[in-house]
Amino acid sequence: MTADLDRLTIHEAHRLLREKTASSVELTQAYLERIHTLEPKLKAFVTVTDEAALQQARRADESIAQGKITPLTGVPLAIKDVICTKGVRTTCSSRMLENFVPPYDATVMEKLNALGAVMLGKTNMDEFAMGSSTENSAFFVTRNPWDVARVPGGSSGGSAVAVAAAECAGSLGSDTGGSIRQPAGFCSVVGLKPTYGRVSRYGLVAFASSLDQIGPITHDVTDCAILLNAISGYDPRDSTSVPEPVPDYTRALKPDIKGMKLGVPKEYYVEGMQPAVAEVMKTALKRLEELGAILEEVSLPHTPYALAVYYIIAPSEASANLARYDGVKYGYSYPGESMWESMEKTRGTGFGAEVKRRIMLGTYALSAGYYDAWYLKAQKVRTIIRREFDEVFSRYDALVTPTSPTVPFRIGEKTADPLAMYLSDVCTLPVNIAGLPGISVPAGFAEGLPVGMQIIGKPFSEETLLRIAFAYEQATDWHRNKPALKGI
User: Fold this and answer.
1) Coil, helix or strand for 400?
2) Residue 179 appears among annotated catalytic residues
3) 144 DSSP β-pair partners
4) Could you tell me if 75 and 89 are in contact, meaning their C-beta atoms sit under 8 angstroms apart?
5) Which entry of 179, 319, 424, 440 is annotated as an active-site residue?
6) What pLDDT is recorded for position 1?
7) Which of 137, 155, 171, 424 is catalytic?
8) Taking the CB of residue 133, how many other CB atoms lie within 10 A of it?
9) Residues 431, 207, 229: CA angle, nearest 5 degrees
10) 271: exposed, middle or buried (C-beta count within 10 Å: 0-12, 13-18, 19+)?
């Protein structure tokens, strides 16, 4: 196989398969070889499904030979290990689910399987998607391919690394407070968090049910549109799924944003933002203006409260969702002398430190005497934040912000300071609080490390976000830069 995996996008892989320049088996074998070469150092995957992937590839080649091909037929992808995959263990990178094998597929997996995609394996993550660095995995730390001494972001760190290091053509992640966009920014790839309700959550292991959303992580914006086409749509099995028609997102990929009004919220340029990141953003905003967009500073005065709101609502919902892991029904079970001892030891030893921290925060916020003071008040502020976004979007097509206030930090640098870690998501959290779509695209490098630019839109405006992201991408070369992977 002659294709250069470092440069191979989903749409380029599709072209090779359609023209029969390469077979799906050849592509899959090439990716599997690369995975096994890089994984000892990068550790992006929890599970690699070699034989199952090759079986899927053989079936895809048979379909292609019969003239049956979709944009994803035979294309090798990676899946975050929080998405249920029938017959393949889904661990959520937790000891609690270390040996859990789901008896069913998540809706997004049913959709990918129906299109003939190939799954190479399940990617590492922060345990139960709780974290911003993939250091909270119960198994191992995933490393950033741009600098293996640094984090890849989280919680979808494995999915972002797998794409950035060309261990797959594209991947799926999940985003509760920035978990697709922040690692995409840290790894210089594209990551999109869809509108809440745009993609079914059926089969996504729940962290915070009013915030979680599955989305694509890809090499470029075109691939992002292709994957979003594949996974979007109403699902009656998910009560939060919205019956909105799904457009063909690839039709939005026009490099023309002349006359579009873009707001630049001043509150996103937070205290503690690295000056080099601010410089990259200044250059990126200037490029958008050169493309004909009209940029104006705007204010979202309640944005600074989004962090506090998130860390009341998300842990509260996590406390309720993770109550099911009691050592009785499924998952890890500690054999105690009594039911209560067994339950206490199961949860005490099955969950990691960050998950236990958030369960305790959430249980406290929901407890008698504190519910009104904490959880109810957070929901009221959430409504105010959402209304502020609505008001701004009555005047602007989209908002442009940094994806993260810093470049990727060193492994271990923030593990002893949970608040400093939580601040990593300060630019992405408000999007989840308001249920909006957001996309991160490569915007340059600061101190030799990736910086992402985030574009935020009104509900179900993914077409607008993809159009702006595509125009910016086509006018820059940042997405073409690939990690050297020296010494790996």
Assistant:
1) strand
2) yes
3) 147
4) no
5) 179
6) 54
7) 155
8) 29
9) 60
10) exposed
pTM, rounded to two decimals: 0.97
Nearest to 425 by CA among 318, 266, 307, 303: 307
The domain segmentation of the chain, as residue ranges, is 1-488
- Active-site annotation holder among 23, 24, 80, 188: 80
367 is catalytic: no
Helix 221-231 to helix 462-474 angle (10° resolution) is 160
Tokens of 70: 């979709």
* Count of Cβ atoms closer than 10 Å to residue 45 Cβ: 25
126: nearest Cα among 164, 173, 168: 173
Q: Which two tokens stand for residue 15?
A: 């072209």
Nearest to 389 by CA among 297, 293, 302: 302
Structure tokens at 484: 């050297």
Give the Å distances, CA to CA, from 380 to 307, 315, 377, 434.
14, 17, 5, 12
Verify cis geometry, omega within 30 degrees of 0, for the bond prior to 239. no
Do 470 and 253 meet the contact criterion of CB atoms below 8 Å apart?
yes
Q: Which two tokens stand for residue 221?
A: 């914006």
Half-sphere exposure of 108 (CA within 13 A, CB side): 31
Position 3 scores a pLDDT of 61
Task: Provide the 3-class DSSP secondary structure of residue 208.
Answer: coil
DSSP helix/strand/coil, 234: coil
Q: What is the DSSP letter of 414?
A: S
CA dist., res. 209 & res. 257, Å (int): 35
What is the per-residue pLDDT for 133?
97
Q: How many residues does the chain have?
A: 488
DSSP string, 428-477: THHHHHTT--EEEEEEEEETTEEEEEEEE-STT-HHHHHHHHHHHHHT--
List the one residue out of 424, 10, 389 whose CA is nearest residue 196: 389
Look up residue 482 and give its two tokens.
Answer: 């690939």
* CA neighbor of 390 nearest in space, from 456, 320, 475, 474: 456
Reply yes or no on whether 482 is catalytic.
no
* Domain 1-488 superfamily per CATH: Amidase signature (AS) domain (3.90.1300.10)
**Residue 59 Cα to chain centre, angstroms:** 29
| Kind and range of the H or E run holding 78 | strand 76-80
Cα distances (Å, whole numbers) of residue 395 to 262, 389, 390, 458: 9, 10, 9, 11
Beta strand 118-123 with 45-48: parallel, antiparallel or unpaired?
A: antiparallel
Angle formed at CA 453 by CA 449 and CA 457, multiple of 5 degrees: 160
Q: At what angle do helices 24-42 and 50-65 cross, to 10 degrees?
A: 160
Mean pLDDT by 10 residues, the chain (488 residues): 79 97 97 97 98 98 98 98 98 97 98 98 98 97 97 98 98 98 98 98 97 98 98 98 97 97 93 92 98 97 94 96 90 89 91 95 92 94 98 98 97 88 90 98 97 98 98 97 86
